[in-house]
Design a protein that fits this description.
Layout: E1 2-9, E2 16-18, H1 26-35, E3 44-50, H2 52-60, H3 85-102, E4 118-121, E5 128-135, H4 137-147, E6 162-168, E7 181-188, E8 191-193, H5 194-205, E9 223-225, H6 229-248, E10 250-260, E11 264-267, E12 272-273, E13 281-282, H7 287-297, E14 303-305, E15 314-315, E16 324-325, E17 329-332, E18 336-341, H8 345-348, H9 351-357, E19 367-378, E20 384-396, E21 399-405, H10 408-415
Parallel strand pairs: 18-19
Antiparallel strand pairs: 1-2, 1-3, 4-11, 5-10, 6-7, 8-9, 12-13, 14-17, 15-16, 17-18, 19-20, 20-21
Helix pairs in contact: 2-3, 4-6, 5-6
């Protein structure tokens, strides 16, 4: 949305004065200009501004964005000048609504004036986390067989398709809603290379899979039309390739690559203090997370509330838009680093969840272990039986099995163990 505002040059004293409120349509702008049509052109101006919602959205949607373990590197500040406090509240509300829908992992916080309650707190305990990576060695060999199935479409009739344009007809002078949309065949479809189209289909599902695809042969340079039989066949082959990649890829831990936990944000008015946490306090915990956090704190091990919008993550081997797993809590013991997530319902039924639990640790260093926790009682077929108790999911003999406990405290003392005196 574009905002317009009209200002006049008063001359005494020499300055511009607003003569209109922010306008969102050209019709009132033209009406105001008509009112002041007798003034010299140099004494009237129309100022334009893009809406703050669009500016913020463009910044957050920049390509090649990365999350970093340091909260400062994941923070973006916008300073918005408004004439009235109510305008800023409206802007913030609109931004929050759009971000919640399109970018749920991004948190929008208002810190202006007396509401500046967000603070940074340094760690009081020095702890480190290893770097993890997506092991694609086995996946590269497996996907090569799928790429070998891609044909050579040189001079192939399957590569051709007709183009289409959308046509709408409306009788002049009538206000009926445009409903009769007709696609009319016209010319040829848009030509693209096999490499471009296949890569686009792959990246739409899982971008990392594109990295193992060697498409330097001449057959990948052939041009085909969008909508052709060849294009549809490439889409099917891309689906098969991504499925094969996810089946053979695994999560690994890089040896001797550690990073320290840095500062974390908290709300001075809405936080909970803990005894053994890496930072003195944490904010934004829901009921289940708070119960789990208190049970973790009672174990007496150092632990960390991992932020979901820029903290420590593991690659998630699932097609779609969500490609990282951010555990809610990290616990450091003498023998392992535990990644605890008390809302693992969406992962346990998928192979991605099983691969998280079966993470491949480097030899000679402290192991990373993942424990997914679900509310209620579950069976081995991943069916929820009732809402009582809590269930932990662990890998035993290559099989993910549920373990039922009465509450978080009993579960964590059994699986992680408490620190001795």
């Amino acid at each position: 949305m574009i905002y317009y505002r009209i200002a006049l040059w008063t001359g005494q004293p020499a300055r511009w004065h607003w003569k209109s409120s922010p306008l969102t349509s050209l019709h009132p702008v033209l009406g105001m200009l008509n009112l002041y049509r007798c003034l010299p052109k140099g004494r009237i101006r129309v100022f334009l501004s893009t809406s703050p919602e669009q500016i913020i959205g463009r910044v957050l949607r920049q390509p090649e964005a990365h999350y970093y373990p340091d909260a400062k590197l994941n923070t973006c500040s916008f300073y918005i000048h408004v004439d009235e406090a109510g305008v800023f509240i409206d802007i913030l509300r609109n931004v929050q609504q759009r971000i919640a829908k399109d970018l749920p992992a991004v948190e929008v916080i208002s810190t202006g004036g007396p509401n500046r309650t967000i603070r940074l707190q340094p760690p009081r305990i020095e702890v480190e986390l290893p770097d993890v990576f997506l092991d694609m060695a086995a996946a590269e060999e497996a996907t090569r067989a799928v790429l070998d199935q891609v044909g050579d479409y040189l001079n192939s009739p399957d590569a051709l398709a007709s183009g289409h344009v959308a046509q709408v007809k409306q009788e002049i002078g009538h206000d009926e809603t445009l409903t009769d949309l007709e696609w009319v065949e016209k010319g040829q479809g848009m030509p693209v290379t096999v490499r471009w189209l296949l890569g686009r289909y792959i990246e739409r599902q899982y971008p990392a899979a594109r990295a193992v695809c060697d498409m330097n042969e001449a057959r990948f340079t052939r041009h085909i039309h969008i909508g052709s039989r060849a294009a549809k066949q490439l889409e099917s082959q891309a689906n098969e390739l991504v499925t094969t990649f996810l089946q053979h890829a695994s999560i690994g831990v890089l040896p001797n690559c550690l990073r320290k936990i840095g500062e974390a944000t908290y709300d001075v008015n809405k936080h909970v203090s803990f005894k053994n946490s890496v930072h003195p306090a944490y904010s934004g915990l829901n009921v289940d997370e708070l119960e789990c956090a208190k049970a973790i704190d009672a174990l007496n091990w150092p632990w960390y509330r991992n932020p979901s919008n820029g903290g420590f993550s593991l690659p998630l081997l699932l097609p779609g838009t969500k490609r990282s797993f951010f555990p809610d809590f990290v616990i450091w013991t003498n023998t392992a680093i535990w990644l605890i997530d008390p809302k693992g319902d969406h992962l346990i039924k998928d192979d991605a969840g099983k691969k998280l639990i079966a993470i491949d640790n480097a030899s000679g260093q402290v192991s990373l272990k993942v424990c997914l926790i679900t509310q209620g009682t579950w069976d081995k077929m991943f069916n929820k039986l009732d809402d009582s108790n809590v269930t932990a999911w662990r890998l035993r003999s290559g099989i993910v099995n549920p373990e039922k406990y009465s509450d978080f405290d009993a579960l964590l003392r059994k699986i992680v163990g408490a620190k001795g005196p």
